[in-house]
Amino acid sequence: MSFESNEYFDGNVKSIAFQSATLPGTLGVMDIGEYTFDTNAYEFMTVVNGALTVKLPGATDWKTFNAGETFEVEANVSFDVKVKVQTAYLCLYK
Amino acid sequence: MSFESNEYFDGNVKSIAFQSATLPGTLGVMDIGEYTFDTNAYEFMTVVNGALTVKLPGATDWKTFNAGETFEVEANVSFDVKVKVQTAYLCLYK
């Protein structure tokens, strides 16, 4: 068996797909930078190490999520992320 | 930039290397199975999602670590791991 990995934004974001005990997920790392992500499913994004500063859909302000914190994003929307230190995250899809 | 990823045990363990705010680290996924890891540095292993049942160096019993729990391993030793569900982990090296 081999886990599938994916790269985005010219390799600045890299993730490995896996099947958790409950939901499909990806485990990934983001380099320093700013990104806009599009969702295909409802997402539970947890910061594992580092921090993500996020502008959620419909929001006007940015909110920073640190290690251990989770934010949720609806399916079929976009959200913006600013990364100031290489950050590890876990995303579970519902 | 592109993050370096590595595979072990015929792809049953896959990780991405990154530089956290404090220490170098890897973020990885283990498939169901049993593995013996050799350490080159002092390791802080944190279970991100799933569980790892571990026999630490010199130990006779196995201990299960769940999501959010961390175990530490000296450099230049081996430790055994049993994985019963695909498990995501973070390893920081000192």
Task: Summarize this entry quickly.
Chains A, B: This is Pyrimidine/purine nucleoside phosphorylase. Two copies of one chain form a homodimer. With 94 residues, chain A is mostly beta strands.
Termini separation of chain A: 24 Å
* The CATH top-level class label of chain A: Mainly Beta
Morphology of chain A: globular
CATH superfamily of chain A: Jelly Rolls
Gross CATH architecture of chain A: Sandwich
Q: Look at the helices and sheets of chain A and give the structural class.
A: mainly beta
Report the radius of gyration of chain A as a whole number of Å.
Answer: 13 Å
| Domain module tally of chain A | 1
Q: What is the CATH topology classification name of chain A?
A: Jelly Rolls
- How many β-strands of chain A, per DSSP? 10
The oligomeric state is homodimer
Residues in β-strands, percent of chain A: over 45%
Main beta sheet strand tally, sense and closure of chain A: 6 strands, antiparallel
Strand ordering within the main sheet of chain A: 1-2-3-10-5-8
Enumerate the spans of chain A where pLDDT stays under 50 for 5 or more consecutive residues. Answer: none
Protein name (chains A, B): Pyrimidine/purine nucleoside phosphorylase
Pfam family, one (chains A, B): Ppnp
GO molecular function (chains A, B): guanosine phosphorylase activity; purine-nucleoside phosphorylase activity; thymidine phosphorylase activity; uridine phosphorylase activity
InterPro entries (chains A, B): Ppnp (IPR009664), RmlC-like_jellyroll (IPR014710), RmlC_Cupin_sf (IPR011051)
